[in-house]
What does this fold into?
Amino acid sequence: MEKLVQGIHQFQKMYFSSQRELFERLSKGQDPDVLFITCSDSRVSPDLLTQSSPGDLFILRNAGNIIPPYGTSNGASAATIEFALAGLGVKDIIVCGHSH
It folds into this structure.
């Protein structure tokens, strides 16, 4: 836990302060072009893999990056996809699998 707390402090001091304009813009709303669906595996980091910035990706993570067929579930995955498409107007969907 201490490592996470130190990371938050480092983010506030170094990254947030140098990117204040970006975070002020993001505070007004989000407008990502991509829905990135991936596994909830802690080793998979969508922002790191794609070298994207905050606000670039709308991310859906679940075990095995499995999406149930349309109409078979009223779960969070379906709601996230619907919001990404209808609410945010994302243009592309990426399903990112991994192995090893």
